[in-house]
Design brief:
This protein has 485 residues and is α+β, with helices and mostly antiparallel strands. The protein has 3 domains: 3-289, no CATH class; 299-412, no CATH class; 420-484, Arc Repressor Mutant, subunit A, CATH 1.10.10. Helices cover 41% and strands 18% of the residues. It has an 8-stranded mixed sheet with strand order 5-6-9-1-10-11-12-13. It has a 3-stranded antiparallel sheet with strand order 4-3-14, with no helix packed on it. It has a two-stranded antiparallel sheet with strand order 2-15. Helix 7 packs across helix 9, helix 12 crosses helix 14 (446-463) and helix 12 (420-432) packs across helix 15 (470-483). The longest helix has 20 residues, at 222-241.
């Protein structure tokens, strides 16, 4: 039987406020456990929450960025459940009247087309704490760090519009691009700034009925999300084809072991006993606030991509990659403006620089190679001071902190040899020293001669210690060899 996959995402986005959603406690990442949780975060008797206005504004900005309906009156509720890292015994969230209503996010597909993924809503809520089972915690004991308790989130809930792990990843990446571009989230998934809950079901191809879904929670990388979806799809299909039934449940995926396992049966809304939060008034958003926030929105990824294709004449592929991340986009533009060579700037930013950053698990914001240094390197390639091969050596040296391109070229004697007279002398010497290669070239078919030139080029580059200008050498060599035919 042929099967169709149905996927919906719930995405938790940690808002980049300095303080928590209902208290003045810091949201700074990396503090010692339980040093950033106050009495309000713990719901101690006699305390009352005060809503963080910036968190509200950030939620509205997201809604405006995806052209969603903004609810000008939204309400907070209490979602009741008991877990060690939820000190209140309930989570303050939104259910019936979320601040962001229906919208849509357009994603690129592999075939070059696009697809609109509907957003059901996005609501404000507070994060829970964190259970700890490693480090200095004894075996069989759980530690609890409440620093994250009360951190402001928006939970973005999609419709079940995705049909493959590729589409789900494209959607997640687009959301990441949007929230980081408008500055409401730092996007650091390794720090929990974005977490994905993936709802997956399968159904016979052509069917319109939804199958029974499972939810895989707390995925914090695109790679893990792709793996978890594919594993769950295969599991459900195998289960059904073997005569079993899918159970609606919450699952966990371990990205290190590549194993998925059940966590608990899936709760329904009535299991949480939602009721309006008695400590918080409804959130009223004025037309003036909407207008001010709309006018404050920075350039969005799709608009930036369009500008990159027009202003820098980049391909859709290059523009998509560079425009999706604000830091990458700013770095690229800085290099392109300094070099007046946007294509070469794009190639280096997306190629050698990104590869090295990924290898050392760094972001472009803390790259050892600055935009000015990369621009200086590209300028020396453009004016033929160094070859592309030499440029990689120079790039490595810049990365290691040995200076800028000009300093390294000078110190290492890497300046490309472009003097025609010197190059002609080297080419002549190599031809005279290799009569057998010359005879072989002369007697070969024209279609094979280009390949034969490689032997001469290798010796010429060796004789020049790799400093001969390849383009000039190729032209001189071709002229001299053709004179012998």
């Amino acid at each position: 039987m042929s099967w169709e996959t149905v996927i919906g995402l719930e995405v938790h986005v940690q808002l980049a406020t300095k303080t928590k959603i209902f208290s003045g406690s810091s949201t700074r990442f990396g503090a010692s456990p339980n040093t950033q949780a106050c009495a309000i975060d713990l719901a101690m008797p006699g305390t009352l929450p005060v809503l963080n206005k910036q968190a509200v504004n950030y939620a509205i900005m997201f809604g405006l960025a995806i052209d969603a309906e903004i609810e000008q009156k939204s309400v907070f509720e209490r979602k009741n459940y008991f877990y060690p890292d939820l000190p209140k015994g309930y989570q303050t969230t939104q259910l019936e009247k979320p601040i962001v209503g229906p919208g849509r996010v357009v994603i690129p597909l592999a075939d070059g087309t696009t697809k609109a993924i509907r957003i059901h809503h996005a609501h404000l809520e507070e994060d829970a704490g964190k259970s700890i089972h490693d480090g200095d915690i004894p075996i069989g004991v759980s530690g609890v760090d409440l620093n994250r308790a009360g951190t402001p989130l928006i939970e973005i809930v999609s419709e079940p519009d995705m049909r493959s792990s590729d589409e789900a990843v494209a959607f997640a990446k687009k959301l990441h691009s949007i929230v980081t571009s408008i500055g409401i989230c730092d996007g650091e998934m390794s720090q929990g700034s974005m977490r994905f809950d993936v709802n997956v079901s399968v159904r016979p191809s052509g069917s319109s009925a939804l199958g029974i879904r499972t939810e895989t929670k707390n995925l914090n990388s695109f790679k893990f999300m792709e793996e978890a979806i594919q594993l769950e799809v295969d599991r459900q299909i195998d289960l059904i084809e073997d005569g079993g039934k899918v159970t609606q449940e919450t699952r966990l995926y371990n990205g290190d072991t590549k194993i998925s396992k059940p966590m608990r049966s899936k709760e329904e809304a009535n299991d949480y006993r939602y009721f309006p939060c008695p400590d918080l008034l409804p959130v009223i958003v004025s037309d003036q606030t909407l207008d001010e926030l709309r006018s404050s929105l920075p350039e969005l990824p799709d608009a930036r991509k369009s500008r990159f294709t027009q202003q820098y004449l980049l391909s859709d592929y290059d523009a998509e990659i560079l425009a999706s991340d604000t830091s990458n986009a700013e770095f690229f533009e800085s290099v392109a403006e300094k070099t007046k060579n946007p294509k070469l700037a794009a190639n280096w930013v997306m190629g050698d620089l990104t590869a090295r950053l990924n290898m050392e698990n760094k972001n472009i914001s803390n790259s050892p190679v600055s935009s000015s240094q990369l621009a200086g390197l590209i300028l020396r390639i453009s004016d033929n001071t160094i070859s592309s091969k030499m440029a990689k050596q120079v790039f490595d040296a810049i990365w290691l902190g040995e200076g800028n391109a000009d300093e390294i070229i000078e110190a290492r004697g890497l300046k490309q040899l472009s003097d025609s007279g010197s190059l002609e002398k080297i080419v002549t010497e190599v031809i005279e020293a290799n009569p057998a290669m010359v005879t072989d070239y002369v007697n070969s078919d024209e279609s094979k001669r280009k390949k034969k030139m490689g032997g001469f080029m290798g010796q010429i580059m060796k004789a020049s210690r790799g400093q001969a200008n390849p383009q000039q050498v190729n032209q001189i060599l071709l002229e001299k060899l053709n004179e012998l035919i």
